[in-house]
Every structure is written in C-alpha cells, then in structure tokens.
Write a structure and sequence with these properties.
about 250 residues; 2 domains; 11 helices; 60s Ribosomal Protein L30, Chain: A; Alpha/beta knot; homodimer
C-alpha cells in the first residue's frame, strides 16, 4: 500500500485536539498508539482519518487495507510532535466524539457514576477497570475530566471502545433513577459483607473530597472498602477496581 | 519560631536527589508535600533537614517545635524549583535511606514481591495499597523502580513510612523462602475461589510482560483475577489492590 504524506492541516488539527474547546468545536478526539488504534479499527467508532508510520502499516495491512476513511503516511517525529504520547512509533487516529446519550442500567447490570473525578489518568484507569469487569456504562458528573481527553483515552488502553459515557448533572440523574443507588464512602457498610443486587448504580467521588453532599443525599446506601492497615485512603481508581471485584464475585 | 533561610547548598542537594546515583551516593531521599512530610515527622525515619514555608510552619508548629534536625525557611518558588512536585506550598524534607535489610513474612503475614515493576508511580501506588491492607513488607527485584524515587514517595501518600522494602535478586530470594509462594498471572486459579494461608509471598510482575520465567518457575501456585469483560489486562497497581482485597477478606 502506498500512502500520501499527512497534509500540514491534519497535523495542525491533531495538535489542536489536545484542548477541550477544540474537541468540542470539531466534535473529534485523538486515539494514539498501536494498541488503542487497533482497538479503534475493530470498533464502531466513526473514524475521520488516520496517520500511520510505515511500520504500523506493514504490521496491520489487513486491518488498514479496506479503510473507508483517509489514511496518511507520517514520520514518527511528526506523530510524536503532534500528539500527546511521548513515544509513538505507530499511529494516531482522529474519530468522531459519540453523541452524549442518556444511559441507564438494564436489569442485570451494574453501572458506575463518577462524581467530580478530575484526573484524566484516573478516569482512563476506571474505564479500563469497568471494561475488565464487564461494566459498559459510565455516568460522569459535569465537573469530571473529559472522557475524550487524550490522557484519558491513552490510560483506558483501548477500553474506551467498549464503555459508553454519559456526562450530565449527576445529582439530577440519580434523583430520577428508580434503581438502587450506592455511594462509595469511608464510613459505609463493608463491601465484603453485603451483596448488591442488579440493577444498581455505584457512585465514586472526587480524589480529595469523595462524594459531594448532593450525591451523598441521593444514594440509598453507602459502602466502604475495609481497611486493615493505616493508609488514609485509596486512590479512586484502586477503589473502583476493588469495588467492581466485590460486585462481580458470585 | 524564627528560621534561617535555606542555604544554597541545601537547595542544590535537593535538586541532586532527583537522580538515583546521587541518592545512592548520599544515602538520602526526598519527601515532598504537607501530607508526606507530616507522616515523616511522625515516623522513625532519620531526618537530615527540612525546608518549610511560613504557612507550613504556622500550621505545624507543635510538630516542628522540638525537631532535633536543622529546619530552614524557604519560599514556595524555591521549594517548587528544587523538588519534583509541580505545586508544593508546604515543605520538603531530606531523610536517610534505611538499610536494605532482608525481610521475611512472619506466621500471620502476607508479603508482596514485585518483579520488574518499572514505573515509579505504580510502585508508589502499590506501597499505598499494601499499607491500606496492613501489608508492611515489600520485596523488590533489582530491576524494579527505586522505592526512593521522588515520584514513588509522592505516589505512596505517606505509606512509605509504614512499609519496609528489601531490594534483592527476587529469584534467589524466592528459592530460599520456605513459605508458600504465589504468582499473579493471566492464567492462574481464580482469586475468588481459593483461600491463601499465611505466611505467603505474592509475586506481581512487570507492567507489560508480567512475571519473568525464573520467578514463575519458583512459585508454588499461580492465581488470576477473574475477567468479566474485554479489557486485555489490568494495571499492576489495580491488580495489587484486587489481590490484597481478596487475601484479606475473611
């Protein structure tokens, strides 16, 4: 396959998409690195265009051969200079941000709700954990990190293709939800000792302050991860992993 | 309390301690930020000296009043320029690196062994998790990140004061250990379905490659975290959190 080199305006667009205001204006986001781009190519996302190095092209000829979107050749240095990965010798793609559609758990589902989780890396890690545990819906409060931040997409390790997001007023969302709503706090019932039935929404809070008062007031129950030592807290992504593991054990 | 301003050579030493070769040469490491420094002040670590802003001094007068080590005043800008925290308006301390003493689990203990965990942030996160779950001993292979890397200390959120490290040839260490040795892999027995008795050593592997062949060959059993969805893997710190939670549930 012989490709045209990436036009300068495509590289410029990629650089612009590191900022949220540009992602919102263009309704586009970045997917970087071999693993994430391959997961993207196997997903239903609407890909706008893709920049590939010769190496990535050679290794993924079958996947790339029948692409319905424009494909350009790029040097590693161009990809690294335009994108946000320090080292990326493979590919960078630009895809459409899916519509922000409402999401609710079905009868046999748990879903996670994040209240003011600010760090894009934590959000990406939680998306990966959700995907590991078969949780495919994530509700995000409006002050959460942007799920289409390049750092979030990178940290999700391809799991963004299998987890849907709905960013909304979380308090109102919880108020309207008829199913069981559980908040993760430092003083709830031990997650080792209760069984949570589906459907349920599990809310996790901010890195420093936990759940906001409004969200706390709208959950039916609070749960905690038992502590056996002396650390003051667990990081929110670690807490998400432990809680999901407890939800899913039979 | 009235303090002298930090001499230039102290600031220079702090900058030097961001590099491992200098930490090894001086046998000193950095502790940065209010939370970590306060935990340090309440620990048995041998503190060499401390730089404090006026704010931190005012807020922690009781803790700092009877310090047996030199205490200097510093501007926020000096602390931030010398240390590795982007924002630090409180304090930075320099303390002696403890001796690298052998560690073994006692009868009622689990201990973690890390095989080639390279990322200082992951190592710090694992230290924090160990501390949450009351695991106070950590064996590190020689190619693991340095536990006294400033990024590790920061990520441990003060838990480095309660968890001891022994960096050694992990394969030889496991070979000599008489207790049960468990390896975390992708194809082991479900951690939901087995009970691991103490004393036991739980080995976790490299971010990309998992456990090395030598370590795999020296464990008695392998365990896995059941997957319910499609993510290819869990980050090693997430895996550590889930495994510790399963070890400790009664």
């Amino acid at each position: 396959m012989k490709l045209k080199p990436a036009p300068k305006e495509k590289l410029k667009l990629i650089r612009a998409l590191s900022l949220k205001k540009n992602r919102v204006a263009h309704k586009l986001f970045l997917i970087e690195g071999a693993k994430s781009v391959k997961e993207l190519l196997n997903s239903q996302f609407d890909i706008s265009f893709l920049l590939s190095t010769q190496t990535f092209l050679d290794q993924n000829a079958a996947l790339l051969n029948k692409c319905p979107f424009p494909l350009f050749m790029a040097k590693v240095s161009d990809i690294e200079r335009s994108g946000s990965l320090k080292t990326n010798n493979s590919a960078i793609a630009v895809a459409k941000i899916p519509e922000n559609k409402p999401l609710a758990p079905n009868k046999s589902e748990y879903i996670l709700a994040l209240d003011d989780v600010r760090d894009p890396g934590n959000l990406g890690a939680i998306i990966r954990i959700a995907d590991w545990y078969g949780i495919t819906k994530l509700i995000l409060s409006k002050n959460c990190a942007d799920p289409y931040n390049p750092k979030t997409i990178i940290a999700s390790m391809g799991s963004f293709t299998r987890v849907s997001f709905h960013q909304t007023n979380l308090f109102k969302y919880l108020e309207k939800s008829a199913c069981q709503k559980i908040g993760a706090t430092m003083e709830g019932q031990s997650i080792h000792k209760i069984k949570i039935a589906t459907p349920a929404i599990i809310a996790l809070g901010n890195e420093s302050n936990g759940l906001s008062k409004l969200v706390l007031d709208s959950v039916n129950k609070t749960v905690s991860i038992p502590r056996f030592g002396h650390a003051e807290s667990l990081n929110v992504a670690m807490a998400a992993a432990v809680i999901c593991d407890n939800l899913k054990r039979s």
